[in-house]
Write a structure and sequence with these properties.
The protein is α+β, with helices and mostly antiparallel strands. It contains four helices and four strands; from the N terminus they run E-H-E-H-E-E-H-H. A four-stranded mixed sheet has the order 2-1-3-4, with helices on one face.
C-alpha cells in the first residue's frame, strides 16, 4: 500500500488522481490532499515542508517528491504507463526542472477549484481522511 498526496484544489492534480485510479487495478494507491489534516501530518512525519505543493508519494516508509514520485507511481500502473518508469535514468535536476515548470503553470493551464475534490462513492475507500 502506498499513499499519494496531491494538491486537492488543482484541476490537473485531481485529473491525475482519477487517471491513476483507472490504471491501478490492484488498488495499490490511496490518496489524501496536501491540504487535509492527514496530508499535513504525513508531510510533517516525513520532514517535507507543509508549504509544499508537490505531488508526494509515500511508499515503504519513504517519501518521494516531484518527478521521482510521479515516475515511481508509473511503476505500478498498467501498460504502457509502466514504461515511463524508464525516464528515471534522466538526471533528477533535469526531470525536476520539467516537473516544476509544469507545476508552476498548472493553475494557469488547467484552473483550480475553490475546495478539494469530493471522491465519488465508488472510489471513496481509496481516500484517507
Amino acid at each position: 500500500m502506498a499513499i499519494i498526496l496531491f494538491d486537492g484544489i488543482c484541476n490537473f492534480c485531481n485529473s491525475s488522481v482519477r487517471f491513476i485510479i483507472e490504471r491501478d487495478p490492484e488498488g495499490i494507491y490511496q490518496f489524501a490532499s496536501l491540504q487535509s489534516d492527514i496530508g499535513q501530518q504525513l508531510l510533517k512525519k516525513h520532514n517535507i515542508p507543509y508549504t509544499t505543493d508537490s505531488f508526494v508519494l509515500i511508499e515503504d516508509h519513504k517519501a518521494y517528491v516531484e518527478s521521482t514520485a510521479a515516475l515511481k507511481v508509473c511503476s505500478h500502473l498498467t501498460w504502457p504507463w509502466k514504461f515511463f518508469t524508464t525516464c528515471i535514468i534522466v538526471p533528477k535536476p533535469l526531470r525536476d526542472r520539467v516537473y516544476r515548470w509544469i507545476a508552476m503553470n498548472r493553475y494557469k493551464w488547467f484552473g483550480k477549484q475553490e475546495s478539494c475534490m469530493l471522491p465519488s462513492p465508488n472510489i471513496r475507500e481509496r481516500f484517507i481522511e
